[in-house]
Amino acid sequence: MLNDFLLLMKSELVLAFILFLLLILKVGKEIRNERLLALIQILLLGNFIFGFFFIESGSLFGGMFATNGLIAFQKSIIGLGIYLISLLFSDWLKKSEHLPEFFILLLSAVLGMFFLISSGNLLMFYLSLELATIPVAAMANFDLDKKISSEASMKMILSSALSSGVLLFGISLIYGVTGTMSFDQIAALLDGSSLQILAFVFLFTAFAFKLSIVPFHLWTADVYEGAPIAVTSFLSVISKGTIAFILLTILYKVFAPMYALWYNMVMLLSVITMVVGNLFALRQQNIKRFLAFSSIAQVGFILLGISSYSNEGTSSVVYFVLIYVFSNLAAFGVAGAISQAAGKERIEDYKGLYQTNPFISWVLALSLFSLAGIPPTAGFFGKLFLITAGASKGNYFFIAVAALNMIISLYYYLRIVRAVFMDKNDQPIAKINLDPSTKLGMIICTAGIILIGLLSWVYDYITTLSI
Amino acid sequence: MMEPGLNHVLFVSTALFFIGIFGFLTRRNLITMLMSIELVLNSVNINFIAFNKYVWPHKLDGLFFSIFIIAIAAAEAAVAIAIIINLYRSHQSIDVENTEDLKF
Questions:
Q1: How many domains does chain A have?
Q2: What's the pTM?
Q3: What distance in Å separates residue A175's CA from the closest CA in chain B?
Q4: In this prediction, what percent of chain B has a pLDDT beyond 70?
């Protein structure tokens, strides 16, 4: 029994251990930021590597907590993401006065995400969702002296509080209809009555808030722009990925009997999200705001994969999120390095970057190619599998719109690449001395962008997991 | 004198929910917006208790859930008020109309 408990919850226990270690270090005597950050990086790397051992499937606490190979893999993706964040933003983190607090908040949010992915009960789902959101709102306020940081944090906490209120109303209606909170039992009791549809709409609205699906995307760009760039990257990559994973579980397991109903909704929202995200991204001048709208457009593609309701859908979404972690974190890492060294965040400031900083220019270009989906990079395969999965249900008109959207997105991604490589600038950003760990993070991201697409066993492995 | 049934209670809670949403969307003071969210959460509590009493009298999930909602609402309010205090320090106001640096 204890053995079961230790093995099944091992990722959560390791994370909680790191969390408590940091709390104790915080209370103890002062440690220099450099050494503390190095320790944290090693711990997070250990956490990521440990995620590949002792993978078992089973459930605990009367079905409240469930895990299997796919969930363990999703947790590994998240673990990789936080390790990369600790590498990429080391310059900013070293200068921060509150380094331990940053990681305490970040790890408690990640702990919430781990429980969220594993949850098998609506109570567990709600509790872990709150644990995954509230610390992030506090993290968004981390630049305490900046006006926009506090504004972003306020927008985030209010919109997430409202969305969890809407979510709870949906959950209460589901409880009223079915009398149970467990995912398995709910699925058996749903028959598509009008109260259940209303409950589903409320629940999905809350998901749309968290995943920033159009028309609930308005908080996204503001929060992304105002928050410190490390927090923005955490929000856009790891929060989004986690919510996409749990949305898969909720739609495929709990609301499976109502498939015919939610298929049209998800398909339509996916196309609207892509179009609106792309159109807004066209006119952005700030790189963080630009990446915010580009991430909204990417969420549209994730929804397209989800709409297929098949194992292919699951595996393509997980695969896409894995690639998205690499490519988006690389882009945010470059933006963070530039904003830390030169204080510039506007796209026009990036003109002529290639003359002074060839390495980060190539990293940025590769990550943008991958986000746009240009063939040799992994992003192409990610989008290819998503669109193939979406196309398996017919509805070719929407698939064609999605493909057209990829072409629109090429325009704005390549606009930045052009600014970096071709445009002349009298005063380009001066040569940036990258921290060694930032460089390591960028190299890992670049390797991921190139290799994940070429190594076909990665996708095969995910496919074997998602049965 | 008629006994109040499930429909009456659900009517109250649904009304409370939409009053909360309406208040959140129309009020301009951050503390009042936070109070509107509390209204929404309390309407959910009423829903859970009502369903537990009228529809599923032999189960306890609804009661437990409402206790957890109360606890989490307190935690959320604590963080939100800390954020609002910090916003007041930087903006000298807690009116949402004054927080307009980030747009479009």
A1: 1
A2: 0.93
A3: 7
A4: 98
